[in-house]
Amino acid sequence: MANGGAESRAVFLDRDGVLVPEAPPDSPPEHLEPFPWVAPAVTLLNQHGWLVIVVTNQPAVARGLRTEGQIEDQHAALGRELARRGATVDAFYFCPHHPKAAIPSYRIECDCRKPRPGMLLRGGEDSGAAMAASVMVGDRMTDIEAGNRAGCGLSILVENDVSRSPRIFTPDPPLEVAPDARVVDLAGAVDLIVSTR
Ligand SMILES: [Mg+2]
Ligand SMILES: [Zn+2]
After folding, report:
1. Which of 34, 70, 94, 162 pairs as cysteine with 17 (C-beta 3.0–4.6 A)?
2. In this structure, what DSSP letter does residue 17 have?
């Protein structure tokens, strides 16, 4: 590892609004086009020895607007696209559930829907990353809260139209969550990470 053989550590990345533009949930299962700064930012994390793990709520599955297979295909394509540009995403995790899902089998109070920490904990376990040495980057307070609950040592809020708007589907958490830092995009988050960790 580039971090000198220290224990492995991960940067957990929210997907929508951080890697790719937020699309309406009922839009067609389109190709996900990463923001132009994403591949260089992920490459920089790779070079500094960080694992890169995407953790994303996809309640469109629970609403019957997407299948899990479509989400998996999207992620495989996004991973290939980034790899083509020299950037490695080590793993993708998504939560297909929603407590008010149209589809009964997805209508559960799962442990993975952010702000719950399940996806991060699973990613840490699967990859061997130490949570306290790891970082969460997202554009909603639910991302920041998930990072906190998972025990991440640093949380960074990407400030965009989403982060500034009220939650549409989920009232929770109106928690008193404060990110450790605020940046304008993933490039800013990665600059902060590699310059301070
Ligand atoms: Mg987001
Ligand atoms: Zn879930």
Report:
1. 162
2. T
Instruction: Compute the distance from residue 139 Cα to the ligand 1 centre, in Å.
Output: 5
Listing DSSP states for 29-89 in one string gives -PPP---TTHHHHHHHHHHTT-EEEEEEE-TTTTTTSS-HHHHHHHHHHHHHHHHHTT---
180 is catalytic: no
Digit-coded pLDDT (tens) for 188-197: 999 999 999 9
Secondary structure class of 155 (helix, strand, coil): strand
pLDDT > 70 in the chain, percent: 89
Q: Report how far residue 152's alpha carbon sits from residue 168's, in angstroms, rounded to the nearest whole number.
A: 26
Residue in the block written with tokens 């609950």: 149
Q: Are 125 and 149 in contact (CB under 8 A)?
A: no
Helix (H) or strand (E) holding 124: helix 118-127
Asked whether the beta carbons of 72 and 31 are under 8 A apart, the reply is no
pTM: 0.92
Bridge partners of residue 136, in order along the sequence: 12, 155
Residue with the two structure tokens 């980034």: 82
1: pLDDT confidence band, cut at 50, 70 and 90? very low
Token duo for residue 11? 């940067």
The answer to whether the CB of 31 falls within 8 A of the CB of 37 is no
Distance 138 CA to ligand 1 centre (A): 6
